[in-house]
């Protein structure tokens, strides 16, 4: 056992319980959060805005008639004040309370909503999770006594609260448990539910929701959040009769709560066995958390006697697993005591045949191990296609590219799906396509930013106009259309279904356009057939996976990782785009010809920097500095996203959500930043094409 001590007394909260379920050893790092780095805390505002949990919690308060700042809304942090206010309210025969506080033994919980009706206590835990009562279940289909894996953490959370509150109140009360989630079977009758709840950051760095003055009208509209009864499931969990408890906790629920809560308050920390789950541990330090301790390194140092040199070695966590998923492959490696890439043999890699030309998934994994470790024998079958550090199958790639029809069209979408519908007549988590970018490549190599579209109207459902604009941008010729990964195909098929159920006058034409550039499956099992349009989009990601690999990618095929790898592999592209030609020689819809851009820059040590790192901060489009942006509006219009950069899809969807309730000036800045980001996504696809052309000449 490892023993640590601090002066701060903390009780075993529901957050600590959830952390213990993930990994008992990590309770220490959660407990001492002021000392240990937690990567889950980075971009906290943006993640909260994208997840929608805060807004969902406040909508639940609306449904139960709890006004912000009222006596029934216990918005205080310290245990004692919260408990005293709860105790006073619980004296009432009937009352609804938000953030009610209860303690029992070493345990302390804050319930999202308590609905007290005499001696009956309805405990409502609110989650911004999708749930479809038409097909979802709390129990596994093939193991009726087991709680379904995907819903398990949420139900256990409620069970813990029920257990503590029931014991705190005593047997004279009956505590009934509910899990309130976004019901995907409900269509919103309200206009723009999401926009009633603005997420802001207070002076202490805490995220909170500002509810507008008309939010209470949502009580009379269709309820997109529904409390689903889980009392029977929770009771069986507490009784220890559900079948997953030994594999989940190694003991029964009550034993687990008793042991973990005692350890937590006594700060008696015991390491857990190392497993593949450790690769997902967020308690590690990096350049975003300077001065913070590294919990993951601390664990592995004690449990596996790792040295600093070991931490510098390539880990099996880097191995690309693809459709096999991480668990089966990495779990087996760790269980066999293989933690480093140089311990992997070809026999450790599952056989997975190729569905098309180029590398099979198995060969790609072997290639990754060979290049990462310098294993010459393992690398031998791939040597003929090595160019410097990179693997590029020029012959296979050329055959693939011969089927491409010019002009080539590179497209990328930005989309969102949130718990609280952005527009009327939408269901929770229904897809919204709010933006696309489109680059064109002519056969002579001419490149231009051909088209883009972004919805900036706050009360307009954008999907159908999105498709109209995309059709107009792509319908000038019959050239090949490219996407990166499956997202664009999935989104267009979802909009196809929306069109089918709509009353749009041109829905037939729009559906035919979607059919022409997408594919879908009909039937099932052996009778399953894929129907592909005559111009079905080509997945550039699949081309990359079959013909190109660079060791700097470390098993990732994200375009934001592939782009720097391409730049490392082509001096010609680096030389070309180190010049300020983008916007002038290569026309752009966002970057003016009189102020063209150089996409390639180098760091102080001479390394080529990822272009995504040099997208302008949102504040740049306000016409003020970042420091001035901080003072632009201290109410709700200017907060964290306005000070950052939109450089990944998660931030983009958070920015679009923010755009829906910003004032005109902030809307313009967010829109400009979104356009620049999406433009780089399709330009990145152009970079990849240029490298492939260079390699196949």
Helices and strands, with pairings:
Layout: E1 2-3, H1 14-22, H2 27-31, H3 44-51, H4 53-63, H5 79-90, E2 94-104, E3 107-117, E4 120-131, H6 152-169, E5 174-183, E6 197-201, E7 207-211, E8 225-229, H7 231-239, H8 245-249, H9 253-266, E9 268-269, H10 295-304, H11 308-312, H12 326-335, H13 361-373, H14 376-379, E10 386-387, E11 390-392, H15 394-401, E12 408-416, E13 432-441, E14 447-454, H16 463-474, E15 481-483, H17 487-500, H18 507-517, E16 519-522, E17 529-532, E18 538-539, H19 540-547, E19 548-549, H20 559-569, H21 571-577, H22 626-630, H23 640-643, H24 649-659, H25 664-696
Parallel strand pairs: 4-5, 12-15, 15-18
Antiparallel strand pairs: 1-9, 2-3, 3-4, 5-8, 6-7, 10-11, 11-19, 12-13, 13-14, 16-17
Helix pairs in contact: 1-6, 3-24, 6-7, 15-25, 17-18, 20-25, 24-25
Question: What descriptors fit this protein?
Answer:
37% helix; globular; 19 strands; alpha+beta; 25 helices; 697 residues
Written overview of the protein:
It is a single chain. By secondary structure, the chain is α+β, with helices and mostly antiparallel strands. The protein is globular, with a radius of gyration of 27 Å. The model is unreliable at 1-8 and 632-641 (pLDDT under 50).
């Amino acid at each position: 056992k490892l023993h640590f001590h601090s002066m701060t007394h903390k009780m075993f909260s529901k957050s600590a319980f959830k952390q213990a379920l993930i990994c008992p050893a990590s309770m220490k790092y959660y407990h001492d959060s002021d000392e240990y780095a937690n990567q889950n805390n980075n971009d906290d505002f943006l993640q909260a805005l994208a997840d929608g949990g805060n807004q969902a919690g406040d909508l639940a308060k609306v449904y139960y008639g709890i006004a912000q700042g009222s006596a029934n809304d216990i918005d205080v942090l310290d245990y004692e004040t919260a408990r005293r206010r709860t105790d006073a309210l619980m004296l009432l025969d009937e009352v609804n309370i938000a953030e009610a506080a209860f303690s029992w033994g070493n345990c302390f919980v804050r319930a999202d909503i308590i609905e007290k009706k005499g001696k009956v206590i309805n405990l409502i835990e609110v989650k911004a999770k999708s749930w479809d009562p038409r097909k979802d279940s709390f129990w596994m289909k093939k193991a009726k006594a087991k709680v379904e894996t995907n819903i398990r953490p949420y139900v256990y959370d409620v069970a813990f609260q029920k257990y503590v509150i029931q014991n705190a109140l005593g047997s004279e009360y009956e505590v009934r448990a509910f899990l309130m989630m976004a019901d995907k079977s409900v269509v919103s009758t309200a206009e723009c539910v999401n926009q009633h709840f603005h997420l802001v950051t207070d002076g202490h760095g805490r995220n909170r929701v500002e509810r507008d003055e008309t939010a209470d009208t949502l009580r009379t509209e269709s309820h997109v959040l529904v409390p689903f009864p889980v009392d029977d499931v929770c009771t069986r969990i507490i009784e220890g009769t559900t079948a997953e408890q030994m594999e989940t906790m190694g003991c029964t629920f009550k034993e687990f709560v008793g042991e973990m809560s005692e350890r937590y308050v006594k700060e008696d920390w015991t390491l857990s066995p190392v497993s593949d789950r450790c690769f997902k541990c967020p308690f590690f330090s990096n350049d975003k958390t300077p001065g913070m301790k590294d919990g993951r390194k601390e664990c592995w140092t004690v449990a596996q006697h790792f040295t600093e040199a070991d931490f510098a070695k390539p880990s099996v966590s880097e191995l690309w697993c693809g459709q096999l998923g991480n668990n089966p492959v990495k779990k087996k490696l760790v269980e066999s005591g293989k933690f480093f890439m140089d311990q992997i043999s070809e026999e450790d890699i599952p056989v997975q045949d190729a569905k098309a030309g180029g590398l099979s998934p198995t060969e790609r994994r072997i290639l990754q191990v060979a290049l990462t470790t310098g294993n010459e024998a393992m690398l031998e079958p791939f040597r003929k296609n090595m160019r410097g550090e990179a693997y590029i199958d020029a012959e296979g790639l050329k055959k693939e590219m011969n089927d491409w029809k010019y002009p080539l069209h590179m497209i990328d979408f930005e989309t969102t799906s949130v718990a609280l519908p952005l527009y009327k007549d939408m269901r929770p988590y229904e897809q919204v396509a709010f933006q696309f970018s489109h680059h064109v490549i002519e056969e002579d190599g001419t490149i231009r930013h051909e088209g883009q579209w972004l919805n900036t109207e706050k009360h307009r459902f954008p999907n159908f106009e999105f498709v109209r604009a995309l059709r107009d941008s792509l319908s000038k010729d019959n050239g090949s259309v490219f996407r990166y990964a499956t997202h664009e195909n999935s989104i267009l098929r979802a909009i196809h279904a929306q069109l089918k159920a709509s009353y749009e006058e041109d829905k037939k034409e729009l559906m035919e356009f979607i059919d022409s550039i997408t594919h879908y499956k009909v039937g099932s099992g052996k009778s399953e057939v894929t129907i592909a349009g005559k111009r079905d989009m080509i997945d550039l990601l699949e081309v990359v996976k079959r013909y190109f690999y660079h060791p700097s990618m470390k098993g990732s095929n994200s375009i934001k990782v592939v782009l720097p790898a391409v730049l490392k592999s082509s001096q010609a592209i680096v030389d070309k785009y180190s010049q300020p030609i983008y916007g002038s020689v290569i026309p752009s819809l966002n970057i003016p010809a009189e102020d063209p851009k150089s996409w390639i820059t180098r760091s102080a040590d001479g390394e080529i920097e990822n272009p995504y790192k040099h997208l302008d901060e949102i504040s740049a489009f306000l016409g003020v500095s970042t420091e001035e942006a901080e003072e632009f509006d201290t109410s709700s219009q200017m907060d964290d996203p306005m000070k950052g950069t939109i450089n990944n899809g998660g931030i983009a969807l958070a920015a679009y959500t923010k755009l829906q309730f910003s004032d005109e000036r902030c809307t313009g800045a967010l829109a400009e930043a979104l356009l620049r980001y999406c433009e780089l996504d399709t330009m990145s696809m152009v970079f990849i094409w240029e490298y492939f052309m260079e390699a196949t000449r």
